[in-house]
Fold DUF397 domain-containing protein.
Amino acid sequence: MLNGTDLYALDIHGASFAKACGGPCTEGCVTLARIGDDAWALGDSKQPDARPLRFTTEELDAAGIDPARFGLHV
């Protein structure tokens, strides 16, 4: 399993972020990209220059974040 150091060592340049919205998305949305076999980057479309947070699949699941809502597969 990857740890926090491993996750932040992964190169996310060129990662394709998808949006998931609970409403009209006029104020921005959470974005998610798969960055490895068991690694994800979670961003904020309102702050595109902010460094995305990184999570394992297990951590996303524990937080109740389902990649399927973003059109992504585990």
